[in-house]
Structure formats: structure tokens, C-alpha cells
Hints:
Blueprint: H1 3-22, H2 31-47, E1 71-73, E2 83-84, H3 87-100, E3 108-114, E4 117-124, E5 127-133, E6 139-141, H4 144-147, E7 166-174, H5 177-189, H6 198-206, H7 211-216, E8 220-227, H8 236-246, E9 255-257, H9 260-273, E10 281-288, H10 291-297, E11 307-311, E12 316-328, E13 333-345, E14 348-354, H11 358-364, E15 371-375, E16 383-387, E17 414-415, E18 422-423, H12 431-442, H13 454-462, H14 477-481, H15 488-500, H16 506-512, H17 520-530, H18 533-538, H19 541-545, H20 552-563, H21 565-576, H22 585-589, E19 599-603, H23 611-620, E20 624-626, E21 635-638, H24 644-653, E22 657-659, H25 660-666
Parallel strand pairs: 2-11, 19-20, 19-21, 21-22
Antiparallel strand pairs: 1-6, 3-9, 3-10, 4-5, 4-7, 7-8, 10-11, 12-13, 12-15, 13-14, 13-18, 15-16, 17-18
Helix pairs in contact: 1-2, 12-13, 16-17
This protein binds 2-(butylsulfanyl)adenosine (IVH).
Amino acid sequence: xxxxxxxxxxxxxxxxxxxxxxxxxxxxxxxxxxxxxxxxxxxxxxxxxxxxxxxxxxxxxxxxxxxxxxxxxxxxxxxxxxxxxxxxxxxxxxxxxxxxxxxxxxxxxxxxxxxxxxxxxxxxxxxxxxxxxxxxxxxxxxxxxxxxxxxxxxxxxxxxxxxxxxxxxxxxxxxxxxxxxxxxxxxxxxxxxxxxxxxxxxxxxxxxxxxxxxxxxxxxxxxxxxxxxxxxxxxxxxxxxxxxxxxxxxxxxxxxxxxxxxxxxxxxxxxxxxxxxxxxxxxxxxxxxxxxxxxxxxxxxxxxxxxxxxxxxxxxxxxxxxxxxxxxxxxxxxxxxxxxxxxxxxxxxxxxxxxxxxxxxxxxxxxxxxxxxxxxxxxxxxxxxxxxxxxxxxxxxxxxxxxxxxxxxxxxxxxxxxxxxxxxxxxxxxxxxxxxxxxxxxxxxxxxxxxxxxxxxxxxxxxxxxxxxxxxxxxxxxxxxxxxxxxxxxxxxxxxxxxxxxxxxxxxxxxxxxxxxxxxxxxxxxxxxxxxxxxxxxxxxxxxxxxxxxxxxxxxxxxxxxxxxxxxxxxxxxxxxxxxxxxxxxxxxxxxxxxxxxxxxxxxxxxxxxxxxxxxxxxxxxxxxxxxxxxxxxxxxxxxxxxxxxxxxxxxxxxxxxxxxxxxxxx
Length: 667
Ligand code: IVH
């Protein structure tokens, strides 16, 4: 077998395993064997750049190069569906179809209405060639590069299958609940804005400029509409069943029925069963099954007459507002929370609902004792959607106002420009902020003393044993164990972890201090640039802004932190305890300014280091890594398979291309 043949064979095999794993959930080889095959393919592809294929299984991981979305006109416009909200309207639809078909018998295909974003996929000769978002229905964004990373979307259909030479298949891109929740947890830890629901998260992800981000976010796709000039069957249901056999993920919930009663039964069944699905749904879609009948019924200007959506009611309940409390988070942000009489909603008892922020709260015009409507919609946390108007002629209680002072420490609240939240600015004196900072300090990615849990921190704070992170270093085994013999072992472990944290390198200590906007990467950058805490503390706004990736908000936050004497005392106490406030000799020795002033674009696949390692190397030697080629680019660090578009642009702008070995020699 030639290497070319082996590449083709590996690609087919890996596509099949990918399908078994992601679509069928039935892997037939171990992860290890899969990785071995994938690596073999990667190696062979690296040796044969002329055989590059954007649909190769090796391309599923994406890249961090910036990709631009071109607007393309849909081959066939992407219509939407008319909505119905109750069974009477469904009955009317059914009768309209009956009339339209002049009494001819017909079948209805019942499906779930997936709540994501619609996508159109084009296949030619069994290969995915284009993926386009709905856009305005006439034209959408070409997001092919991002869509290639979604594992349940086949890039290459099995050879010799009975798929048409050319077809389009439409469906919905979704972020499963579990991925959504994990993503929001991560974002919360990094103090980034949370996504309100999986649809927003999926849409934000699909618009990402870096395919590697899409690859990490674990999107899924369900397909529900096959289009083309040569379809295998004359029924919608039959066509989708074929598509399923070709490797597409088609929902098993799809059902063909021939009476209105069966339609209602499907609706009732899935209104309940949908709660156990891994992805969000917001209704049912009903489609006349026969394609000839579909054509006979035709379209209105906006939607087909042969299909309709039935939207589930977001379950709503009326209850009484008793009190609004205000919670202070560890960043100092104050969130209003409604406390209500308990009420049963979508299977759980609800008695609290978030009011998000001051604007949201005042828009509702809440008064104590109001009857309010609560809903558990696409958002996970229940929310108050309105005051129940049926009761508005009754005398109302006091209007609920947002507080002016912190409920925990009494400090006057502030609002930062461009932010919806009010904050308690008393960072060093406000209990939830103090405890939150200690929790952050001990967390695994910071000082890694995470045997010290939130309850212990709460307890110690309440008992006056810790007020700040420096106090951790005064704790004793006896205090931790509470003189309880059973706890001595774990207490010793924690004390040891606290002791060990004195060796944690400066960049992580800097991150652990919890300076607003100073995440792991920023901390690393600051440590590399300023070398020690004293130099950093003396840095001016201009000094900070002169660093590549440091913007105004970060710079101001650093200045503000060091301007606070409490923080200076804290650093002095930690320094006296032996913590690392200086970059290590080793990190320093690895640094140089050989690439100072150079702007470098990374492209292609590398043999000696990963792309992230090259990024780190560029930073370490004073260079700047950017995503797209421009006249300012000093050179391109190019591996194998650099994209032809990039190559052309580089040549046009006269940007030099440096290969891996040349680059390593440079530094
Ligand atoms: S069929 C001409 N089937 O709902 C028919 N749409 O309001 C085209 N959707 O834009 C759509 N699940 O994004 C169809 N099983 C399903 C669906 C579905 C979700 C979305 C789709 C469409 C919107 C229509």
C-alpha cells in the first residue's frame, strides 16, 4: 500500500470510529487505539502536504488562527415556520391541510423543535463543502471551518453509499445542557459574563473567530430537513431515515402519524419527556410527509403551508412576593433576589428568583405582597416575568427599591462605567468578598491548598481565625482539627499544603492575590515583564499599557490594587512568611528579547512543538503573536499545510515565511 492509499484508508476508518463514538455512542475501539491511528495519520499528512484535506479527521481539533465569515446567498431560501401556541391552532392547521389537499389522505411527520441555531450543510460527492448559518433567510455566514469541528457532523460520508451526488441538509446546532453548565462554571470562575441559555452559548461559539474554541466547546447537531434535486424517497420521514443511515444525527423522536389525536398524543408525551433530553427543545414541528403534497400546498411569503411549529408553554405560576434580599458576591457585585411563597414549577419547588440587577428590578415595578408570575424558561434559574395584573386593583405594599449601601458591611455601593451591576467597593473589609478572595487564593490553579474548603473558611472567618490570606500562614494543626483526633491527619495535610504553597512560583502567587481582571495569563505576562512585585507595584499606567496584551481596565485595576495600603501590608506579611514575589531564575533564564518588536503569525501544523508552545515561546522572547496577516506582520512561522489563502496573502504583502527549524535557531 502506498502512503497515499494509507492516508485515504486511515481517514475512512477514523471517520467511521468518530461516527460510532459521537453519533451512535458505541465506540468499537479504545481511545488509545483511536489516538494511535490519528497520530499515524497526522504524521503521514505532515509528510504529504500536497494531500491536505480540510475534511480530514485530523482537522476536527480546529486551529486558533482567525477565520473570517463570508456572506453567501442560500441556494434555496431558509424559511421559518409559523408558530402555534395551543391545540386549537394545531387543529386549524390540520384542517387547512385537509382542505388544501382536497380530501386526499396524508401523513404528518411529528418532530421535536430544537432550540439552537439553524444551519444549512452542503455535500458534494459525499463531502461536506459548505456550512451556512440562517442569517436573514436569504443569505447567511459561511461558518464551514467552525462546523468542521463539530464531531456529530460527518465530514465525509461512507464511500459508495447511496447518497445523492449533491444535496443540502438542514438542522440545528446546539450546545448540550452539560456542556453549557460546564462552560458557565468555567466562565464564572474566570469572572466572565455568563451565557443566559444554551442557544446563546451555541450561537456565540459558532461565531467564534477561532475554530479551536469551537472544537473545545462541544457542540452537537440534529438534522431535520433534506433538500436536493435527486432525493432517495418521496417522503420526508423516509429521506431523514436515509440521512440517518448515511451518518447524520437524526432524532429518534421523529414519528409518522395520520390522525389529529396521534399528533396531540405526541405533543403531550414530549412536553413531559423533553425534560430528560440532553439538549434544549422549545416545541414540536409538524410536517406533511409526502413531498408531492408539500409542493401542492406550497408556501406563503415567509413559511411553508405544509409545516407548523407548536411552541411549548414555558411553565408559569403565580405566587406572592414577600421580600427582596441582596446578595454580595465575591467580586462585590450585588444581586437582588426575590423571596416568594413556595410554588411548584416544572417539577421543582421554587421560592427564590433572581432579579439580575437594578435595571431589571425597577423595570418590573415590584411592590411587596404583589402577586408575581414566575417562569422557568430557557434560563435555568427561575425568574419573575411580570406582576400578575389580575391583582393590581388591590392595595399594594411598599415599592421595592435597590439598596444604596452594602447589606454586609454598610459601604456605599458604586457602579462602574459600562456595567449593569452595583458593587460594594470595600474589597478588604466586606465579609463575602474577604471569604471569596481566600477561596480563590487556595484554589487549585492558584496556590493549590484546596483541602481547605469553603465551609472551613466560613467557619474560621466566623471564629476570627482568618481575616485575610496572610492569616492562613498562622494556622495550626490544633485549630484545624479542633482537637478532634479523627481530623488530625487531614489537618496535617492542609498545614503541609499551606507550607508547600511558599514554593508556588511568582506568576501563580500574583494570580492568587485576586486582583480584579488579573487572570492566569495576565499574571504570567505581568510576572515576565516586571520580574518582581516591587517593580510591578511601582509601575505607572503607561508602563502597564506598554505591555502587549494589557488594556486600560487591567492596568487601572493593578494601579488601584497597589494604591491600597491594606494590600501593601498584606504583601509584606506574605513576603515575611517566605512566599515567592520574584520570578524564578529558571523562567528568567529562558527569557530573551530576541523577538522584541516582532509581530508573528503562526500557521500550519508543526513537528517539534505544539502551536501553544510556539505561542509561549514567542511571548517568552518578547515577540507578539497575532491571528491574521497584515502589512505589520514581521514574519509567518509556518508549519506544514499552511492554508493557500494565507500563503497568497503573505506573498502579496511580501511577508517572509519562516519554518520551524529556522524559528528555533532564531531564538
Ligand atoms: S423545519 C421549511 N424542523 O425552527 C421548514 N425546523 O421557526 C424549515 N427548528 O428556522 C424548518 N427544530 O431553526 C424544522 N425539527 C425541526 C426544527 C426546526 C427546530 C427551527 C429551525 C427553524 C425554526 C423555524
